[in-house]
Structures are given as C-alpha cells and as structure tokens.
Amino acid sequence: MCCKTNQKKEETSRVDALPYFNEASFTPKWISPTSKELTSFHRIPDFNLVNQNGETVTQKTFENKIYVADFFFTTCPGICPMMTSNMYKIQEEFKNDNDVLLLSHSVTPEKDSVVKLKEYALEKKIDDKKWHLVTGDRKQIYDLGRQFYFVEENLGEPLGIDDFLHTENFVLIDKNKHIRGIYNGLNRASIAQLIVDIKALKNEK
C-alpha cells in the first residue's frame, strides 16, 4: 500500500512542461512548446542507418513519434546488458502505444552486423515494431552521439573517431526532434522518471 502511494505521488509531482536542452552541460531551457524560439532551437539531424531487419532507418521512421535513444554494443560485458534490460522495461510499458519508439545505436558497427543485431534482438525479446537496433557508418553514429545527443561527458577533451564511445545515458526526444531529458540507463529511479516524462510529453499541447 505504501509503495503504491509513493508511486502515485511521483507520477503527479511534475512540472507543467519538460525543459529543452541544446548543449552538453544539459542546462535546462524553460521554453513554451508553442514558442517561436523553438524554430531555430537544437534538433537531432537526419541520419541514415540500418536496423536489425536490414531496413533503412532515418528521421522519417520517427516522424511524429516520441523516442528514447541510447548507445550500446552487443558484445559489451559491462553496462550494456543492464541498459538493454531497462530499455526493455520501457518497451513493455509502452508496448501498445504507437507514439513511442526506442532507438539503440551500435558503437561497434563494424562488428554489429544486421545478422548480429537480429540475433541480439531475438535473445533480448526486442519488439521490431517498437525498438530499432541500428548499425551503419561509425563516424555518423559517433557524431550523432557526441555532437547532437550529447551523451558523453568528455571533460573538455576533444574526442575523435578512434576514441571509444561508451555511455549509460538514455536521451528523450520529442516529436519535433528536440532533446527533452537525459537519464541514467542503469538507475531504476531514473528509468521510472523517464517513463513519467514520456507520459508528460504525450500530454503536451
């Protein structure tokens, strides 16, 4: 009984609207969703990758969708299995919701072929209609992660294509390709907050 009460409180104790983010410090920008300022605000750019079914995945795939993005690799022995497990919880939470998708980028695309991603998807019970595991050009994936999703804290050090991208962060993207939140993909409370925030985005006018 106690736990249910706490959960209900968490779900209703939200700000009126989620903030927007446009740089790596993730300083929140409080902007009205109807503001003209958003026309020139940071967005995730278009990309061209391939998913576990060999299908081309672009921003068109996520048109008018809310999505959660992360970066992983199938042979990762460390943080990735927990991240995948937590992303699976989001998949199940929004299983019947066509507005919400998931996007996991391989950071070892030269090893994570379409066949390898498909094997991983089957092993992890990933719903192909809900969750895209993508591979493709390494530079494109690393540029997306560092320059546009801002998933990796580099402590001011410039990082190149040969510097491995490894992060536990999940990033929430709204229907207009704006970043609306960053979450620790290993933390249960953070995942719970992400689920609450997805629901808040769905109600945003």
TrEMBL record:
| Assigned keywords, A-Z | Copper, Disulfide bond, Metal-binding
Where in the numbering of this chain does the Thioredoxin domain appear?
38-203
User: Per UniProt, where does Cu cation bind?
Assistant: 76, 80, 166
* Signal peptide as annotated in the record: none
What residue ranges are annotated as transmembrane?
none
For this UniProt entry, the molecular function terms from Gene Ontology, in alphabetical order, are: metal ion binding
Using the chain's own numbering, where are the disulfide bonds? 76-80
By its UniProt entry, which CDD domains does this protein fall under? SCO (cd02968)
Pfam families annotated for this entry? Answer: SCO1-SenC
Which protein family is named in the record? Belongs to the SCO1/2 family.
Name of this chain's protein = SCO family protein
